[in-house]
Structure formats: C-alpha cells, structure tokens
Amino acid sequence: MNLIFPAYNKRPNWPRKSLKKATMLLCWRALGSLVALAMLLHTATAQSATEYQVKAAFLFNFAKFVEWPADALPAPDTPLQICVLGQDPFGGDFEQVIEDKAVNGHRLEVAHPDGVPQARACQILFIASSEKQKVRDILRGLAGASVLTIGDTPGFAQKGGVINFVLDESRVRFEINLKAAERAHLKLSARLLTVAKLIVAEEESGRN
C-alpha cells in the first residue's frame, strides 16, 4: 500500500528524529482503524473469544467505516442504532462492546425492533439466523431505507444483504454486496473493502 504524506517545510533546527516521529504518527493515525479491523480478523478465533463476541465487536467497528446519508442521522446528537431482528444470539455482548461509545459524535444504542417497519429506523440491522426463512421478505421490506443489513446465514449477501459473516478456519470473516450497499445509499470505506473476504459481484446478488 502506497501512502502519501504531506510535505514538510524544512527547518534547520528540526532534528531528523522529530521528522521521523511526526511521519510515523501520521502513518499510525491513517492506518489505525484498518489495523483494528485486521487485528480482529487475525485474532477472531475460538480460543480468544466466542463467535458472537467477535461479531459484536465487528458490528461496532463497521459503524466507523460506513457513511449514511444526512437524513438517516439528521442531527449531530441523533443516536446510531444497532438493531437485532429475531432471536438475539449476542446476549449482553452488544452492551459491553458499545457501552459509553460514540461514532462521529453519535451515541450508540442497541435496539430490538418488533418487525420490519420498526427496523427501517435502524442504521445497522443484524438479521438473526432465526429469520433465515424470511430474509428475502425482510430485505424487500427494507427497500429504500438506509440500513446496513448484516447476517450470518449462507447466501445472505447473495440474497441482497450488505454484509454476511462467514467462518474461515475458525476465524470470523465477512463478505460484502456492493450493489446492496448502493441501493441503501450507503458509502463503504475502501479500507473496509480491503479486509473483506469476498466482494459479491452485482450479477451474483440475485442468485440463490
């Protein structure tokens, strides 16, 4: 990966060590979030945490790499809702991960909508495996809403979900459907795409 750093004005009294330190600091700031995701990818094993503890941490980190349209978060203090539709597999892990945390000034909240109409108000929606037979109907019901849909059932991304968790040699990874993200008017960071296991091509998104 090529990194471009801002030019510095040379000063006779600026030690080379200071320049090197400043450059390294910029590097770490630029890559900090990506490193956090990469660390999750490499340490997300059965030995280090339970599967759903890792997935809960990913959901929190996804919020940092997605841009919602202005009308989805209309005010600076509008809470960003991470919702679970169906039987919640996380237990108290969500609350532990996001306690006292915010993303771009938006306080994070966990919610459990009763159905699709309420889920349209969520920014991030995890569709539990208990709803796997209804996935297509749920996604159709969310049409036009700027919701980052996430699941962990086979074929979720191909059916129109934005992100699908998959297990790869006991590690939690994820695949992305870019066409579904575009339909929801969501902008995904290139850094998020870099660490995805698979980008589902648009022509595949309607296949079973």
Query: How many β strands by DSSP?
Result: 10
**Number of helices, where a helix is a run of at least 4 consecutive DSSP H or I residues:** 7
Mean pLDDT: 79
| Helicity range | 25-40%
Overall radius of gyration: 19 Å
What structural class do helix, strand and pairing data support? alpha/beta
| Uncertain stretches | 1-14, 16-35, 42-47, 202-208
Lateral strand order in the biggest sheet = 3-4-2-5-6-7-8-10
Pattern of helices and strands: HHEEHEEHEHEEEHEHE
Largest sheet: 8 strands, mixed
Beta-strand level of the residues, as a percent range? 15-25%
* First and last CA, distance: 35 Å
How would the global form be characterised? globular
Question: What do you see in this structure?
Answer:
Helix content is 33%, strand content 20%. The protein has seven helices and ten strands. The chain is globular. The chain starts with 15 loop residues before the first helix and ends in an 8-residue tail after the last strand. With 208 residues, the protein is α/β, with parallel strands linked by helices. The strands form two sheets. An eight-stranded mixed beta sheet has the order 3-4-2-5-6-7-8-10. Strands 1-9 form a two-stranded antiparallel ribbon. Strand 7 (163-168) and strand 8 form a beta hairpin. It has helices at 16-43, 51-62, 93-98, 116-119, 135-141, 178-183, 190-194, and strands at 66-67, 80-85, 102-103, 106-111, 124-127, 148-151, 163-168, 171-177, 187-188, 198-200.
Concise synopsis of the structure shown:
The chain has helices at residues 16-43, 51-62, 93-98, 116-119, 135-141, 178-183, 190-194, and strands at 66-67, 80-85, 102-103, 106-111, 124-127, 148-151, 163-168, 171-177, 187-188, 198-200. It is α/β, with parallel strands linked by helices. The chain starts with 15 loop residues before the first helix and ends in an 8-residue tail after the last strand.
